């Protein structure tokens, strides 16, 4: 995806139970006439949570630890155990604060980019026996509509040229590299599976190539 412009809209303090962050809000504007994604947006939104001194493209003088996290209302807010999203979010915040600095980019790409209502319709199909990919395809979507251009552009605006990326998804690594952000290290985002998330994680591993080693 190409944006006509990416701009910082706001910046403020954000105290959390992990520590005090700076929260930066960004908008990525699609060019006039561009085809919107499945959610129909022409303006994409994301926030960056910055912990520690990351003012020179490094964090406390080191290559920053970075997590690019896609919005998941059911997991992040309601603690759903259908997925591992909240556990991964908390793992990333724990890792960043434990190292004294880092950046978490939270991107509004609910349901791998299809939107909340479509995601809930996919849940219905999963309740009937379809897996996450099959459910998306039954609804006319790709398995994953996410695009990681905006997080890469945000990192560039922050002066970041290289990252230690918290992810199990090789496509995120490749997306950063393709955008000119060097991934010098991949840090595992693997968390313990729940009985209710086991099949979901197996699909991510077996059909999407995610690097998950603990499943049977």
From TrEMBL:
Residue ranges annotated for the GTP cyclohydrolase II domain, each copy included: 8-187
Protein name: GTP cyclohydrolase-2
Pathway the protein takes part in: Cofactor biosynthesis; riboflavin biosynthesis; 5-amino-6-(D-ribitylamino)uracil from GTP: step 1/4
Keyword GTP-binding recorded: yes
Sequence similarity: Belongs to the GTP cyclohydrolase II family.
Primary role: Catalyzes the conversion of GTP to 2,5-diamino-6-ribosylamino-4(3H)-pyrimidinone 5'-phosphate (DARP), formate and pyrophosphate.
Chain residues that bind GTP: 67-71, 88, 110-112, 132, 167, 172
GO cellular component terms given for this protein: cytosol
InterPro entries: GTP_cyclohydro_II, RibA, RibA-like_sf
Cofactor: Zn(2+)
Binding site for Zn(2+): 72, 83, 85
Annotated active site: 144 (proton acceptor), 146 (nucleophile)
Reaction equation(s) it catalyzes: GTP + 4 H2O = 2,5-diamino-6-hydroxy-4-(5-phosphoribosylamino)-pyrimidine + formate + 2 phosphate + 3 H(+)
Cofactor binding note from Swiss-Prot or TrEMBL: Binds 1 zinc ion per subunit.
One biological process term in Gene Ontology: riboflavin biosynthetic process
UniProt organism field: Terriglobus roseus (strain DSM 18391 / NRRL B-41598 / KBS 63)
Entry annotated with the keyword Metal-binding: yes
HAMAP family named in the record: RibA
Keyword annotations from UniProtKB, A to Z: GTP-binding, Hydrolase, Metal-binding, Nucleotide-binding, Riboflavin biosynthesis, Zinc
Gene: ribA
Example of a GO MF term: zinc ion binding
